[in-house]
Description:
The protein is built from 8 helices and 4 strands; from the N terminus they run ααααββαααββα. With 224 residues, it is an alpha+beta fold. It has 2 domains: 5-93, no CATH class; 110-223, no CATH class. Helix 6 (143-153) packs across helix 7. The longest helix has 23 residues, at 61-83.
Amino acid sequence: MSAELWPKIRAALIAALLLSQCIDATPMPVLRKDHLEYGKAKRELRNWTKMLNGMGVETSEQQVLAKVVALSKQMQKIRSKVMWPLRPLRKLAGVQQKWKMFAVPDKRPGRLVLAARQNGEWHELYHSPEKKSFLLEEQLFHRRVRAIYDDGGDRPRIRAIFIRFADWVAWNIFQEYPQYDAVMVRIDKSYVELPNEEPQADRLLHQQSRGRQALLEKMSRMAR
């Protein structure tokens, strides 16, 4: 291979990898009708329908939903065809991991709150994403740990990984703070209001409580 040819081949391979990562990161989920019938998806559907009608495009929420679902399936087929020839190169370079970009900003994000009980009174220890002196502050602020409680708790149904996360948090707090006899790990639904909107109070989304003795017994059984 000539010295002049190799830089061009290398540039082409790098460009192909970058293109594949951009395509793979593009938010194109395979949508079903039920995916768009709750929470923020339903609000976005209503807003888009209203915006299209305001632009002179007469349509309904059901029509927009049907078109979005059909378009999602078509885009997935196109992406699969484009990505297929690049699979050997992606496997060789070890870049198969997908990093999806955010498709829709959430005006009602979940927020992690930790509290502990002493002498019958609950004391708040941590309220994400604040920075303060706390035992697990650095771990909880780390993006990979945030992914656990965001993905496991900030959704309509709680996931098993969030339950294990609650065990881990409570165990560490009990080890460091002997004065507490119970720990509460919860996700509060916070609200981000526009200037013309009325402020709304946070509400509870999910909650896990752990008593010291019960958790110690659970950990002992798991260690056997």
